[in-house]
Write a structure and sequence with these properties.
The structure is a homodimer. Chain A is built from 9 helices and 9 strands. With about 210 residues, chain A is an alpha/beta fold. The relative contact order of chain A is 0.09. The first copy, chain A, binds a DNA duplex (24 and 24 nucleotides) through helix 2 and helix 4.
DNA sequence: TAGATTGTTAATCGATTAACAATC
DNA sequence: TAGATTGTTAATCGATTAACAATC
């Protein structure tokens, strides 16, 4: 068992559920709730209480029998595990429909992310500001990412450009790519790639519809 | 085993991979490729060939030993299974950042979806056209969805409005909701809900980054 | 104390992978 | 025919759920 294996200890499905707990807990905290039990969280989200307990344990939190978890502690524990206690600077490449939308999300900073600059190949977009973020020429990305030690790249270019931009990100020292293109990127093993596949999601929806209509 | 169970026969992970095969196959077809083997598809996407075979079998396709699958047949089989041979009309509610982006996607029709109208609560947006789609007042949604027998609703409203709009969609006869809000919607069991959880995806990315930096 | 809740071990379930016979 | 490929059964792996002891 090497280091990478042991880090992977947390099941991916658990990690995916953590933001849901976090959102609920933040709401509860503003309502002044001091402690919360697994049963309560489970009921609100439609999970089983055992699953909630397993998920939360991933973050290292320790609860109190008969009481539950201290809301504040649990929030901190989840945020810490996800790296959302601080935020990391990120570059966004490709200011099309999706890129534009993401630049407008103003609560990424509550989710560990801070988009500091955007890039596009279209000369007409360069120099403009979108949602308070300046758009630079694509060929400036390499230099700036290297200089600013950017670790996260958000890839929202058309499919045809995805692989070449991804490769450039890797060369510039970017270590994690949030990929919104439908392309299976080829990058070194050390690079973290997380794909957002809208069409996979749509496929689940339409196939269910198609197969219940019969 | 009832009807619902037998329909659910296809594993969800397989369904999620089908659009990836489809995209690749469509590319191959334009390049004039008549037949394709599992091994080839597997290599291109980084899967095992057994997995590809199992996934494709879900759609009912039958291959030819020594040859593989006829590209055209396989494309048709996947499209048919996903319900992407035709497209269904859909309403989009909430023309904010994400709503705007989705209205701009012009290849949804290749993926079974046709957005025919958009709705928003903001009076300033009403009557305008976004990407050739007219924006109506939110309170017109119910009547129009019922009248046009709309089956699919795309939910891109802010979190606070998500549940109430979803409930209204259900009352209007909408049978499947593509939910982009981070809310766990409460709807009858018969309604199909497919959630796009951006923050789940981001959590996987940042947690990996946080846990490899240590 | 009694009862609610956590933490953990064991059992179940489902998806992936391996092995191999059937086929053209 | 020989070899590549499919289709299918069995083995493995990982996540979820059930059961229950420990705890305040």
């Amino acid at each position: 068992m090497n280091t990478t294996d042991s880090i992977k200890g947390a099941p991916l499905p658990s990690i995916r559920r953590l933001p849901q707990y976090l959102q609920l807990l933040r709401q509860m905290q503003t309502k002044g709730r001091i402690a919360v039990s697994c049963t309560h969280l489970a009921d609100d989200l439609g999970f089983t209480s055992t699953q909630v307990r397993k998920d939360l344990a991933v973050t290292g939190i320790i609860g109190k029998p008969k009481v539950g978890y201290i809301t504040e502690e649990l929030i901190a524990s989840i945020e810490n595990f996800l790296g959302w206690n601080n935020y990391s600077d990120a570059f966004l490449v490709g200011v099309g429909n999706m890129g534009n939308a993401l630049l407008g999300y103003d609560d990424f900073r509550l989710h560990g992310l801070n988009i500091v600059a955007a890039f596009d190949a279209n000369p007409e977009k360069i120099g403009k500001n979108v949602h308070n973020c300046e758009i630079f020429a694509l060929d400036k990305m390499y230099e700036l990412a290297e200089r600013m030690h950017i670790q996260i790249g958000i890839l929202t270019v058309p499919a045809a450009a995805a692989q070449s931009v991804a490769s450039e990100m890797v060369l510039a020292g970017i270590r994690a790519i949030w990929n919104f293109s439908p392309i299976a990127l080829e990058v070194p093993d050390s690079i973290i790639v997380e794909n957002v596949r809208l069409y996979s999601s749509l496929a689940v929806l339409t196939s269910r519809l198609a197969n219940t209509n019969k």
